[in-house]
Amino acid sequence: MNKILECVPNFSEGRNMVVIKEITNAIESVESIKLLDVDPGKATNRTVVTFVGEPDDVIEAAFRGIKKAAEVIDMRNHKGEHPRFGATDVCPLVPVANVTMEEAVEYARKLAERVGKELGIPVFCYEFSAFKDERKNLANCRSGEYEGLKERIEGERWKPDFGPSVWSENLAKTGASAIGARNFLVAYNVNLNTTSVRRANSIAFDVREAGRVLREGDPVTGKIINDENGEPIRIPGTLKKTRAIGWFIEEYGIAQISMNLTDISVTPVHVAFDEVCEKARQRGIRVTGSELIGLIPLNSLLDAGKYFLQKQQRSTGISDEEIIKIAVKSLGLNELAPFDPKKKIIEYVIAENSVKKLIDFNLKQFAEETASESPAPGGGSISAYVGALGAALGTMVANLSAHKRGWDNRWNEFSEWAEKGKFYHTALLSCVDEDTRAFNQIMSAFDLPKTTEQEIAVRKKAIQEATKNAIEVPLKVMKLAAGSMEIIKTMAETGNPNSVSDAGVGALCARTAVEGAFLNVKINAAGLKDENYLSHVLAEAKEILQQAKETESEILKTVYQKI
Questions:
Q1: What is the largest CA-CA distance in the chain?
Q2: What is the tens place of the pLDDT at every residue in 437-446?
Q3: If pLDDT is split at 50, 70 and 90, which confidence band does 411 have?
Q4: pLDDT tens by residue, 102-151
Q5: 458-467, long-range: CB within 8 Å, 24+ apart, which pairs?
Q6: I need a surface site. Which of 85, 134, 389, 400 has the fewest CB within 10 A?
Q7: At the fourth CATH level, which superfamily is domain 186-351?
Q8: β-strands 10-11, 46-53: how paired?
Q9: What residues are annotated to the active site?
Q10: Topology annotation, domain 4-181
């Protein structure tokens, strides 16, 4: 899967749409990134832009946006309700998929250094990318705002991490920027069956990390109790990394708990929802649903769906689409407006306009594409697909077993097997297109020019690298299909006896996938010159094939005995 990094720069212009468009045009000039949202605010005089893509592309797009903002925004004339200290006030990077926080920190610091050097803008690194603890908090970095910037950057304590620390006319125009790496923030509202803001606020104070101040007697009107330093003593709320407040939404005629979940790895959406439900119940109030503002990573909704399935003692080894349906229904995300996963889940939004894959075809289209005069998809892709069907059958038996009447005490056992089966099923599906890409890579290598000696050498190297990849992909299919046979074998032996024939067909598919992929390994190996590599790979492939044949025989023996 691709690495996905999100960037959410905040620019100090929310009224002039021509200026805003110039900045977003600069960002979109990096073709591979996807602009997800542009949210200008007149009162705040600030625009929040959201875009995603591969990390290096996101960094380039962010740099271009920051550069353009420095050209078209003059901080000497800026006024707005929101705290700010620069044309690009803040620029957080957020890991979304297959990017670690450590990697995001490196990218943030790389961007900050480039902005400081090439654009001459003071940059403070904040959140996870901060070099000093006191700079982790954005409010600390931005204290005094633009008006206090000159004094701060020229002092030793708040010298910028990158860029100039001496005031100039250029800095008077651009101000400073805060660039950092942070966890994904989810803006999430929970709907209540009340119109009372005071009661909604009480629930918000119950759950938010900051909690409420301790008072004498009445918790609302009583005298505030201070500590020995004169600071109010606080009763912390139950949810970490959560900000919350109660408010009334006139459009819907209800009160809501409005929450910012600042680290969904600490407090996921489903945990926040259940906690608000419980605190509301204690106050005689009922949660009727919830509302997601902006976008959310796929795994967040998958985790929510699995959480609610587990509470029902149901298998979690089902399709992502079904898991998401459970999440949406359980959280009541469609109460106020229809919830469309394709428009609310980041990975789906990104994939919406991407090149269509083989696995996106329907059955008829896939068969007709295979039968066409094009050499791809061929035996390699078909082997991967047959393997995916075998793993899917094993997963199906596990799910049926988890749901079998009288086997309620075994639901978790079979759910775990279904999860394993789903892993193999999903991985093998991805190999369907991976095999075709490997074939196309070989064809591209053969099409390279071969006039000069240098070109011939480059072409030979490219062919050998592409050939090695074309061997690795079917070898991967062999390993995955063979691995899925453990699930199929277990389901034939201990799963729902009414589905034992399905396990048998799954075994036939898995062995076919292994042997079909083996043929691809063999034929592609003929074009490789690396004898040591070939010797090792072929020996490994033969061993996998032999084991798969033996496992298939064992499974079929069990199947025939039971039917």
A1: 90
A2: 888 888 888 8
A3: very high
A4: 999 999 999 999 999 999 999 999 999 999 999 998 888 988 898 988 88
A5: 463/527, 464/528, 464/529, 464/530, 466/438, 466/441, 466/442, 467/442, 467/524, 467/527, 467/528
A6: 134
A7: Formiminotransferase, C-terminal subdomain (3.30.70.670)
A8: antiparallel
A9: 82, 435
A10: Formiminotransferase-cyclodeaminase; Chain B, domain 1 (3.30.990)
